[in-house]
Design brief:
alpha/beta; 213 residues; binds zinc ion; 7 strands; Rossmann fold; five-stranded mixed sheet
């Protein structure tokens, strides 16, 4: 029955590549051309040290193709992209050699989650956790509905904008945590969230994103 439903869905909405939107055959949302040509972060730059001193691994550079795909994912309901994004992120993390015991994500505020209907970072965290055979748990809560980081230009403004907006909800003592978000720019958001986890006793935190701007 699941196969039948799947085939029917494929007839109604033929699967397309998440990046170039060409039709793809096997339901895998990455065409061979994009698999070859995506702007992968080169192996020697896989790990970026953010402003706040957090090690962060990203699969792709945020070029025009990735930006357009990410916008469909984040703002236009293309939640199904989480599968292929998660695979790219898992591969990047494995290539980086960095490790963790548990996967979590940088959460949306409740009001934004209500409006969007899904938490784009959570879906990615679940995919990465499944790919690495690790547990995925909510460890953080967003307590302040601050303005979007995209409106803040400087690194200092970005740090100020996210200061104190996350709260730890589960005891992370002794855990090596993989902290997932969709995008990293200066790393202010990831560093702030990681700081809360480390302050509550986490052993280590590594950031993991789909793309690096
Ligand atoms: Zn493609």
């Amino acid at each position: 029955m699941r196969d039948f439903g799947r085939r029917l869905l494929d007839l109604l909405y033929p699967p397309k590549c998440a990046f170039c939107r060409r039709l793809v055959e096997d339901g895998h949302m990455l065409c061979p051309e994009c698999a070859e040509e995506l702007p992968y972060v080169d192996p020697e730059n896989l790990v970026q040290l953010t402003d706040g001193g957090l090690r962060c691994v990203s699969a792709l550079w945020y070029d025009n193709t990735v930006r357009a795909s990410h916008h469909r994912y984040k703002f236009r309901g293309a939640a199904a992209y989480c599968g292929v994004y998660g695979e790219l992120m898992t591969a990047a993390l494995e290539d980086s050699g960095l490790e963790g015991d548990i996967v979590t994500w940088v959460p949306l505020s409740r009001s934004r989650l209500r409006r969007r209907g899904y938490d784009q970072a959570r879906l990615l965290a679940e995919e990465v956790a499944a790919g690495m055979d690790l547990p995925c748990e909510a460890l953080l809560r967003k307590t302040v509905n601050n303005p979007a980081q995209s409106g803040r230009a400087s690194a200092a403004e970005r740090r100020q904008n996210v200061k104190g907006v996350y709260e730890v909800t589960e005891n992370p003592e002794g855990l090596r945590i993989i902290l997932v978000d969709d995008l990293v720019t200066t790393g202010a958001t990831l560093s702030e969230a990681a700081g809360e986890l480390l302050g509550a006793g986490a052993e280590s935190v590594v950031g993991l994103t789909l793309a690096r701007a």
